[in-house]
Amino acid sequence: MIIDIGEWVFRQVVRQARQWQDAHGTVLQISINKSAMEFRCDAALYQDWGGYLAGQGLAPGAIIIEMTEAVLLDGARQVVERLRQFRAMGLALALDDFGSGQVSLACLKTADIDLLKIGRSLVSELGRDDAGLGLGLCTALIALAQRLGLKVVAEGVETAAQRDLLRAAGCDYAQGYFFSRVLPAGQMARLLAAQPAA
């Protein structure tokens, strides 16, 4: 059942991304979380994803597949194959919630990913610890990831102080309640329409 739901989510996200691109002239990146089970599935289940993406005319990297540290640690042959398959389709790959699991820094060097998402547990420490250890750790992770050619997203940003500290540390992107709660598609369309032209 999770495979069927994942297939439905993928198609809905691609369709929605295309609608927003057409309506607002903006190429957005939209992330889809995938479970470990979905990474271990037979390659045939994903055969038509590339054609579907191409048919919708989305730019490469417009859809990001997010995986947890557990998926990357799995290292199973199917997981590696799935990562290659997704990459060949033009999907971007992100390691989600980094810092909450056991992935070593050395693993980042060999992982074929585009984005590193610093977990909420690390971001929540920004501005709260007097010694600045949270900021030091986030700054080091940002610098390391960027040195490896990765973009960095900070998750769970809830305050202007966190945003400012991350910006000063060179973080590429941030997400969290400070910017917006999760929005239904209709409200997101209104938010996009209200943005000044780029």
Short description:
It comes from Janthinobacterium lividum. The chain has ten helices and six strands. With 198 residues, it is α/β, with parallel strands linked by helices.
Q: What is the CATH class name of the largest domain?
A: Alpha Beta
**Strand content of the residues, in percent?**
5-15%
Could you tell me the CATH topology label of the largest domain. Answer: TIM Barrel
CATH architecture of the largest domain: Alpha-Beta Barrel
Question: What is the CA-atom radius of gyration, in angstroms?
Answer: 17 Å
The total count of strands amounts to 6
* Whole-number total of structural domains: 2
CATH superfamily of the largest domain: EAL domain
Main sheet summary: 6 strands, parallel
Based on secondary structure, the structural category is alpha/beta
Following the backbone from N to C, one meets helices and strands in this order, namely HEHHEHHEHEHHEHEH
Q: Could you tell me the mean pLDDT?
A: 88
Shape: globular
- The helix content is 40-55%
Question: Taking strands numbered 1, 2, ... along the chain, how are they ordered across the largest sheet?
Answer: 1-2-3-4-5-6
| Distance separating the two termini | 41 Å
Output the number of helix runs.
10
Poorly predicted segments: none
Structure description:
With 198 residues, the chain is an alpha/beta fold. It has two domains: 1-94, TIM Barrel, CATH 3.20.20; 114-182. Helix content is 49%, strand content 13%. It is built from ten helices and six strands. It has helices spanning 2-24, 36-39, 49-56, 69-74, 77-88, 105-110, 120-123, 133-147, 160-168, 185-194; strands at residues 30-33, 63-67, 92-98, 115-118, 151-154, 173-174. The protein has a six-stranded parallel sheet. Helix 1 packs parallel to helix 3 and helix 1 packs parallel to helix 10 (185-194). It is globular and about 50 Å long.
